[in-house]
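Appendix C reproduces, verbatim, an entry submitted by the partner laboratory led by Prof. M.T., so that reviewers can inspect both the input and the predicted structure.
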Amino acid sequence: MHHRSPTHIFVPARDFTHRESSYSPYKRITHFAHRQHCSPYSYCPKRKTTLNLLQGKAPTMAYKHEDLSPPLDSTSSPPPLFDGTTRLYVCYTCPFAQRVWITRNYKGLQDKIKLVPINLQNRPAWYKEKVYPENKVPSLEHNGKVIGESLDLIKYVDNNFEGPSLFPTDPERRKFGEELITYTDTFTRALYSSFKGDAAKEADAQFDYLENALKKFDDGPFFLGQFSLVDIAYIPFVERFQVFLSEVFKYDITAGRPKLAAWFEEINKIEAYKVTKTDPKELVEFYKKRFLDQQ
């Protein structure tokens, strides 16, 4: 079958340096803080295949059932590419892909954007050759083009698809929201680096930053008051740090931080997020191997 070549658009929010080293159970590690995607060296096991997903805020259709397919690997045939279907390529356990997955779910786009999971450890050749030359996730196939980078994608999905808006119109909140989204890279870089040093000291600084940010608006438990792209940008990483720091370093990210505790509690009530969460035990074991085994 002949597939029309796509237009690939790469619109990174900032120019980050992509660095790799030999530190990983897979012999090298791609440092999460310098990118907005998951590489072929990211963890992506099988997941449960039946979930209930949030269908926006429509009162007559609060939830939508979705069956998740197994990740596609090197033996898999490609979907009918560039046939008018909008596809979101993900790894079920990639925090960058999780950002876009949550956005899709919250806006109720399960029928508009098809989820296509990729096995990053045994990825299909056609993904790089025919879909996304960067060979990473997430990526979005839409209107004959492919777009990458998670922070750009959550904005793209919010701006170009129906469903509840996830960014405020108020100028003050928009400005603060952009500042917080920009800071996500500093936040993740500092915490991942801390696993090899004084984790508690660095965690204090970063989670104090979030606690103070959550104090700015008091009309809701989220960063901009109401749930927004800012919360979506942070939660995949806070989720992982909360589990790993607690299990390995006996560090409670919410201790002495009531705003962060309330934020974490409220966000865990949102089904659009809950169904995308990674199994905590698997996450801890992966992070132990990745960050601690070779110290």
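The chain has two domains: 7-160, 171-292. Additional entries are available on request from the coordinating office.
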